[in-house]
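User: Predict the full complex structure for these chains.
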Amino acid sequence: MRISNIARQMEAVGVLGPARFGKAVRILREMFSNDDYSNFISLAGPIIPGGLRNVITDLVDEKLLDGIVTTGANVTHDMIEALGHRHLVGSETLDDSKLRQRGLSRIYDLLVRQKAIEDLEKATHRMLSRIPESKRRNIATYELLWEFGKQLPDRQSLLHTAQRRSIPIFCPGIFDSMLGLNLWTYSQLNPLLINPFKDFSKLVDMTYNARKVGVVILGGGMPKHHVLIASSYRGGVDAAIQITLDRPDGGGASGAPLEEAISWGKIKGHQMLATVLGDATVMFPLLTLAALERE
Amino acid sequence: MRISNIARQMEAVGVLGPARFGKAVRILREMFSNDDYSNFISLAGPIIPGGLRNVITDLVDEKLLDGIVTTGANVTHDMIEALGHRHLVGSETLDDSKLRQRGLSRIYDLLVRQKAIEDLEKATHRMLSRIPESKRRNIATYELLWEFGKQLPDRQSLLHTAQRRSIPIFCPGIFDSMLGLNLWTYSQLNPLLINPFKDFSKLVDMTYNARKVGVVILGGGMPKHHVLIASSYRGGVDAAIQITLDRPDGGGASGAPLEEAISWGKIKGHQMLATVLGDATVMFPLLTLAALERE
Amino acid sequence: MRISNIARQMEAVGVLGPARFGKAVRILREMFSNDDYSNFISLAGPIIPGGLRNVITDLVDEKLLDGIVTTGANVTHDMIEALGHRHLVGSETLDDSKLRQRGLSRIYDLLVRQKAIEDLEKATHRMLSRIPESKRRNIATYELLWEFGKQLPDRQSLLHTAQRRSIPIFCPGIFDSMLGLNLWTYSQLNPLLINPFKDFSKLVDMTYNARKVGVVILGGGMPKHHVLIASSYRGGVDAAIQITLDRPDGGGASGAPLEEAISWGKIKGHQMLATVLGDATVMFPLLTLAALERE
Amino acid sequence: MRISNIARQMEAVGVLGPARFGKAVRILREMFSNDDYSNFISLAGPIIPGGLRNVITDLVDEKLLDGIVTTGANVTHDMIEALGHRHLVGSETLDDSKLRQRGLSRIYDLLVRQKAIEDLEKATHRMLSRIPESKRRNIATYELLWEFGKQLPDRQSLLHTAQRRSIPIFCPGIFDSMLGLNLWTYSQLNPLLINPFKDFSKLVDMTYNARKVGVVILGGGMPKHHVLIASSYRGGVDAAIQITLDRPDGGGASGAPLEEAISWGKIKGHQMLATVLGDATVMFPLLTLAALERE
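Assistant: Here is the predicted structure of the four-chain assembly.
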């Protein structure tokens, strides 16, 4: 018995969580195996520090993903690891005032050394200085992250691999992150202007010209919505799966069912949709394993 | 790459959801492979109608489980299926007044025919009449469910298999279920007295005499707490995993972290505990697959 | 501006959480002011230790509630407080092994002294011995709790006040609690048999004979479902509000929307239903304040 | 009995939800009454369409708020209402394909006419054209929203009132919204460049120069984090309350406890922090009512 068998049995249950899991595997298999699909993934929450760095880098390297939309935090963590830092295993019950004194910052049970944040600032400023000033005066986030990826020769880095494979990483909320602070401090003394309109034009072009668009949504937030809204110009995406712990009945976009997006013209129809209720850092590797298993 | 490899990699991440999933697989593997363990499972939420009937029946048949604690609803659904009824695939957006008129009852996106409920009542009364009156006057729920299991010759039935394997099914909330209504209507005209103290004595004996006690908690509710409280007489259980979507910060027992139970003397220590945040009907088959894979 | 004005404005918003809150206030006002209603409340989660002891005792004392269905844990806490013990303010980050050594048990950020649990056992055994043996040999939980209430002369005690006002407290899961352990230990040496069928007959009678039945559901679990299922013999309840943090899409009964119960014949129709998403220990006092304010 | 009395009683409970609610009222009272405080509010989720438009506009008008950070969606909805459109009351069970055909878009149980979205595009382009081109070539989001507010003479509009009171509205994710699409389409044919660095400089200046900084966080997302990260240059904010339904144990920023931010230097200490578990569209008006009641 393998996980792909389990997934098929689950879809046969037809109801509740198992049906949604089984359907998500089937959709993901279609997205990965049908060359008509241009596939996008959105990353929100602790995706990179939560252990999915290798999983996503591998998918980019194998050209199973065509574009990424992410929070600034996930880019920040990829860069920190590319600079040689590792997170520490902590606990959610540690005293945050004491951690502060000891130079440690906390994300649930994960710790980051303040030293890593400081190294990131230096490295960011150094890498920015190597970008030609003319480019720096009007740069998209995906262009900026390609520049960083080129300068971070870590084979396991998502930024590096995406640059090597010419896969754009869009970061519409880049300003709201540790990396964003570094961009802002640099901009106070040096020419730097990030132009998110260029990002959006690129994303609209990519989705508009794709034969089919598939989206994998890990967590909610701004990344979730971004490929969907850009796809409204093409009449919506063709396939979408989301993995989320956010609830629908608060009315926020993060927990909203994918079906809602049909009424906004961002998704084409009900057939190729599945919401998996769960933790993306656990469920996405399992869905991927099942979707890539030979049947 | 197999799911047991993924689970080991997840445990190596050391933080967040992956660490908890990986650790849960390791604990479950120990519970299933170490003969010192007497293993209990608690079932709350739509475990049987959600497709786990075969999974749990197989574990009982292979003697990997030694006792079950369940809500009345899961027993009700096992019996309905043993009587030949199947659930229907519906949707969570159906109109419940119309369903009522059409003789259908809903659990999220799953439908049950009213006819199945009526057949259950007849079958329950018939099976009760076949139990000797002396036994009926003071019967534990596990004894009652063995009697039913004997009379329901469906190899896929949890009740039937548990009876065949002499595994007790405890149902402390049996009164609060469709089956419970049938017991009550029967008791209005016939001698029937269910004695939950007999159940508890049996459960305390089983846990007290076990070399080690392991618990798998699917969902919360009364079943979650029951093996833990019975184990307080032996100083707590040795290993426990729970799969839940309930949150801890409301303070309810269903979402409570397992660690709390240490302070009540119901769990021995921190080493063999893992909470998996997710939907039990999806996660338990995956955890089981990983835990039983040959390494 | 008073909270009842806010509630009316919220209902006028017509959508999302505010509409549900405003509607719940209106339903509760109707239940409290229309003499046709027999009102039941179900208590699950840390309702008594979470500060609602006075709120519910006052409603019982003013005869605004006609019946209560509760977990064993809430009865346990009411008795502990009636014996003069108080909970301590702790924190959710305390070390549970150390708490155990110090004789403290934890519920999220609340601590209970082990001494209180020991005193409860002695008091329970003493109070049981004062109940005539003939009565003890076949007693409903509501009769048992009236006996305890009579012997616990604390005006703020829910058990005491309910006994004084002849309001039954049903406790279908009494066995699964610290109090339940004490009943079981007593039963090992003394005659004691609790008969839940008697409870259910009383509850069915009460709901069957009521002109209208209203239900307030705090938290989920077994108590949530109990008044609803008992009301199926009268064609369902007339009005219901629930306050819950449990989510609907896992399929469990605790998080299920009230609408589902219509398809089971446990609620009459869509008009008088409202689900408030939130923490019952916070929302119920606020809803009650708004519902009882003179308009 | 008034809600401020209830809040004080809740804080006296000392544990669980009531303690957090009571403490949040006390912190909010301090923020609103102590002139040393510069107060910021972050808006994520359906805050404006969920009925809080008047509440927040009133607080801005009374100068109890000094700055706002919001998602693009909330600005979009404020503008739609300022143009005379109203949302419709729908249901979460409507068929989204049919809604699409009928020109309606859905947010849980709320409907927006497609016509409103089209009017917004025309109005946005018209208002943009009235902004001097030199300004348009390098404009912060708070400057842009002041320009719109000036041109939208609706006394109940948050944009209009904020402009009239010179309160900046920061919108770091403006691109990811219907309004953002309109900005992008305009920019394809006309000079327009939005410079988020200018926003961040303004926000850092405001927080750096404040004697004390207080933050009210409604929902999570990018707005939640923004005032906190900008305040890291002053050593963190002095007081913060958050209202959220997102859970902490997934590790995402939206559900993270405020305590984590201490370890990042974004909050000063443990004293003036409170997380209220609940729906912001319900809880914020209630907290505000309690905090502004005369004691």
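Chain C has a mean pLDDT of 97.
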